[in-house]
Amino acid sequence: MASHREDWAIAAPGLLLLLLAFLVPVGSILALGVRTEGGEFTPAYVIRFLTEPYYLGISWRTIKLSVVITLVCALVGFPFAYIMARVGPRLRLWLVILITLPLMTSVVVRTFGWMVLLGRGGLVPDIMRSLGLVRRNYTLMHTEVAIVVGMVQILFPFMVLSILGVILRMDPRLEEAARVMGCTFLQSVRRVVLPVATPGIVAGSLLVFTLSASYFITPSLLGGARLPVLAGSIYETATRTQDWPFAAAQSLILFTAVLLLLFPYIRLTRKAGG
Amino acid sequence: MKPNVMLSALACSFLLAGMSSSAVAQRATLTVNSWGGAYEKLHKQLIFEPFEKANNVKINVVTVYSADTLAQLRAQKAAPQYDVVHFSGGQEVVAAREGLIAPINAEELPNAANLYPFAKEGMSRGEGPVHLVTAIGLLYNEKKVKNPPKSWKDLWKPEYGDHLVLTDLSNSYGLLGFLMMNKVWGGSIENTKPGLDKVRELLDRSTIISSSPEIQQNFAQNDAWVAAFSQDYAHVVRQGGQPVKFVMAEEGTPAVFFTANLVAGRPNQALAKKLIDFSLSPEVQAAFAREMRYSPTNRLAKLDPAVASEVVYGDAVNGLVRFDPAQVDANRTALVESWKKLIAR
């Protein structure tokens, strides 16, 4: 009993911070989305969102892009994390530094870097042009491809580091045993490493998905005004048209969607013993 | 020994800080807003710093855009924190109506006598005077464009190909440019369908930008030829080395009017009025025109011929089109939403 009280005492500052700096403000913002000015409950803002093809289109783009970004991160991140786990500690340290170094730079700066690379006359369109793939004046700016490229670069470390942690904890003898028992390398990866790494992949995917669904700087800079995503729409509604209740309703919908994702995640990781 | 030295150094610095802040407290303080970036730098250099020196006053500059300033004034109604507020989006009309800013009698500002009529017209309604103007017209690349655009309708000429730049309506320059296009195609502030329908024709051959600095990037890197934008940014782009010219379109030139307003219910109103008057002086306005190509509203402001050729200057400012801010404000949300739906892919 006494130790229980101590636990609470130790956790109290963190809980208090969470309550004051997160739950209360976020809760009141979300409440704004379902209340009239008089304070009564109203679903009007949420209904407005769900009945307008424009906002449904934005939501669809947000989900579609987040899924693509998550898939790309997972497909590239898993082999990368596996190799990081299997190289020597010195090289691994360098790879970790390499992966986390971009995190030390502001997202805005990195996004501007992509604007230079992807814009008209930038490095990427230039190479594509010299390969004869595109015409002169081709630009990748203001396309969904640009958003995916920029977001993958930002979120890749989250995926790699989540998977790396799991693979590092795995007993290498499991893999050796699989090879001794006649598995090829790819078979051992598929039947031994992949199942063990699943919790890491799922955790990484969840991180990447929720972050990309709620990012607005990079999509709005690389995608431009004609490719709005949900987080960008919330920002615009709150700051430009100053329609706070409707912005809150959009936040509520984004929040609910992300929350719905959490449940299958918990079930999946439990099954995988994570 | 070492910690002791550190401690006494720390104590000393606290003492010094305390002394200097009490010295400041003896001087009068004015709190004002400005809009950040190059504009705020110039605002400080040309108005606030000289005024501080001349009047032994401390000016506390807060970087807040016009719309947010209005929101703050409303929230602070019981205990206002600003002395002078600057607006660029017509917010003074609303602020005056709600009693957030105090009327100024034109006789109280010596420089007001020399303002063009439109610049002091709002004062009778309790708004602050207009101290600077930037006109919205057409920017074009002199090297690439053979036939310079003359009218708003020229934007629809096929010869400019896909080298057009349009501006999102979340940007106030974009909003005014659109309202003007809408007007020349037969629309009004309440009926924006004609403009929206015509802009739809341009969507496939234009780049849409949302923030002002992007205009420069589009002329520098994206092979932009023609854009509807403002005279001050035409100057910024030209300073950046692009051969860009600004033209006033023949159907009319909408403009952004920068006003300086006296906040109601503040103690230092005499000093605040002096600051507003200072921003109306011919020298200050001429300096703003020289540095960033804003049009003066004081008819005594003298500009060099080179500067004068690049701004709307002299009696021409009287002909600028002003969309009624209250009416724009009432229709803004609906318009911005229809616009977003129009441009979304």
Relevant terms:
heterodimer, A: 274 residues, mainly alpha, MetI-like fold, 12 helices, 0% strand, B: 345 residues, alpha/beta, D-Maltodextrin-Binding Protein, domain 2, 2 domains, 8-stranded mixed sheet, two-stranded parallel ribbon, 43% helix, globular
Question: What is the class of the largest domain in chain B in the CATH system?
Answer: Alpha Beta
Overall average residue pLDDT of chain A: 90
CATH homologous superfamily descriptor of the domain at 71-218 and 254-271 in chain A = MetI-like
Strand content of chain B: 15-25%
Pfam family, one (chain A): BPD_transp_1
Domain ABC transmembrane type-1 (chain A): 59-265
InterPro entries (chain A): MetI-like (IPR000515), MetI-like_sf (IPR035906)
Membrane topology (chain A): Multi-pass membrane protein
Commentary on this structure:
The complex is a heterodimer of chains A (274) and B (345). By secondary structure, chain A is an all-alpha fold. In chain A, 78% of the residues lie in helices and 0% in strands. Chain A has a domain at 71-218 and 254-271: MetI-like fold. Chain A has helices at residues 2-32, 44-51, 53-86, 89-100, 107-118, 123-130, 144-169, 172-180, 185-214, 217-223, 230-239, 244-271. Chain B folds into two domains: 25-133 and 256-319, D-Maltodextrin-Binding Protein, domain 2 (3-Layer(aba) Sandwich); 136-254 and 324-343, Periplasmic binding protein-like II (D-Maltodextrin-Binding Protein, domain 2, 3-Layer(aba) Sandwich), CATH 3.40.190. In chain B, the strands form two sheets. In chain B, strands 3, 4, 5, 6, 7, 8, 9 and 10 form an eight-stranded mixed β-sheet that branches. Chain B has a two-stranded parallel ribbon with strand order 1-2. In chain B, helix 2 links the parallel strand 1 and strand 2. In chain B, helix 2 (37-55) packs antiparallel against helix 11, helix 6 crosses helix 7 (193-202) and helix 8 (214-220) packs across helix 9 (231-239). Chain B is globular and about 65 Å long. Mean pLDDT of chain B is 89; it is low at 1-25. The A-B interface holds A 54, 57-58, 119-122, 137, 139, 141-142, 220, 224-228, 236, 240-243 and B 67, 71, 168, 170, 203, 207-210, 221-223, 332-333, 336-337, 340-341, 343-345.
